[in-house]
Specification:
Length: 84
């Protein structure tokens, strides 16, 4: 049911945005990556990917997951349409 609500809900609440930002700050802090760097990375990803396809920037999620041995950049970028 949670997935269905996410799909059909048009915009997130300020509470949900604040929770997501806090989660990102915590992940970045654990990985020793400045939140500003991740925001810059997200903006640059949007710029490059937008050359080739229309994306839903509001729903885009970029995070850095880390454990004791490695870090992974994870990007969830909803594509609206591929440009031909």
């Amino acid at each position: 049911m949670d997935l269905i609500n996410k799909i059909f809900r048009e915009e997130t609440t300020s509470k949900e945005r604040a929770i997501e930002r806090l989660r990102l700050v915590l992940v970045h802090d654990r990985a020793n990556v400045a939140p500003g760097l991740m925001e810059t990375l997200k903006e640059e990803l949007i710029e490059v990917i937008s050359k080739y396809m229309d994306i839903d920037e509001e729903s885009m999620e970029v995070s850095l997951n880390s454990n004791e041995r490695s870090a992974s950049l994870v990007a969830n970028i909803p594509v609206k349409r591929i440009r031909r």
